[in-house]
Amino acid sequence: MGTIRNRMVIVHHFNRNIIEMMRKDAIEHFQKLVLEDDTDTNYNVSECMVSPILSSPINGEFSFVVMGDCSKIGWKTSELFERGRSEWVRRWRESDDSYLVLVADFGEDYDAFIESEALD
Question: How far apart are CA 107 and CA 53, in angstroms?
Fold first, then answer.
């Protein structure tokens, strides 16, 4: 038994070119994690884990999400994705202040919350 926590990344930006670059980088980064976790998988991150870029009807704002691994806390997969997600989020948070990268944390046994500051 274990506790399932889902950690989903939410990315928002006003510049279409930058958010497209961020999404491409997310697909490459998280696909490597998926393959590191299971070298025989056919899981396609660009179709199943990283959403298309969504656009707002007003002001041209854009967002996409990165689905969490939905593993149980302490499992190998959970630990791998926690490190990889933290690395990706930290790198993008430090590169430019004009966009927003959040981590939504929800699941069993604890209240849901959103991290909006740099990860420790």
Answer: 25
What CA–CA distance (Å, rounded) separates 18 from 34? 24
61 phi/psi in degrees, rounded to 5: -95, 150
CB 9 within 8 A of CB 66: yes
Contact of 13 with 98, CB cutoff 8 Å? yes
The whole-model pTM stands at 0.88
CB neighbours of residue 18 within 10 Å: 17
Alpha carbon 23 to chain centroid distance? 10
Contact 2, 74 (CB under 8 A): yes
pLDDT digits (tens, 9 = 90+) for 63-91: 999 998 877 777 788 889 899 999 999 99
